[in-house]
Amino acid sequence: MPTPAHWESQRCRTGLVGEVCKECGARLFPPRDICPHCAEPAQTVFRFRGNGEVYSYSVVHYAPAGYETYAPYPVALVKLEEGPLITAQLTDVDSADVRIGMPVEMVTRKIREEGQSGVIVYGYKFRPRLDTLDKESHSEPARHLA
Ligand SMILES: [Zn+2]
Q: In angstroms, what is the span from residue 138 Cα to ligand 1's centroid?
């Protein structure tokens, strides 16, 4: 029977694979095999699309060992379309440009795996959705007429 550690090493690096509870329909990430909502077994694989928005964020200025070259970097609590909140590093964005509610999408990036000191690392990061960035860069007032 897969343990959470097994899941983490085998699944999470290649995408947002979680589980769905057959009993109540809750989507779980990271996978934990037991639904936190109804305590029923939840072992049905569910693949998240990887889209969400920034629910909250903070900027890490003093990175743990191994992450120094990234600091300062933004770490966000991302609310996935499917419901779960997950913690992930943001990438391809300046810390000063991160906004609450910013649409983001998952990207798989090479990442240190010896994550400690409260930084949760599953092998993915989130970046601003390119389509929404494009919209923001177009500031013509007549855009809505198009
Ligand atoms: Zn459930």
A: 43
Q: Which residues pair with 89 in a beta bridge?
A: 75
70-82 confidence digits (pLDDT tens): 788 899 999 999 9
| Domains with residue ranges and CATH for the chain | 3-130 (2.40.50.840)
Residue identified by tokens 């990061």 is 125
Q: Which residues contact 99 (CB under 8 A, 6 or more apart)?
A: 54
**Integer angstrom CA distances of residue 127 from 4, 21, 78:** 26, 28, 11
Cα(68) to ligand 1 centroid in Å equals 40
Between the CA of 10 and the centroid of ligand 1 the distance, in Å, is 24
CA of 44 to the centre of ligand 1 (A): 11
Q: For the whole model, what pTM was predicted?
A: 0.68
pLDDT per position as a tens digit, 17-49: 899 999 999 999 888 999 999 999 999 999 999
| Interval 107-131 mean pLDDT | 68
CA angle 31, 51, 18 (to 5 degrees): 10
Nearest by Cα to 99 from 49, 47, 139, 59: 59
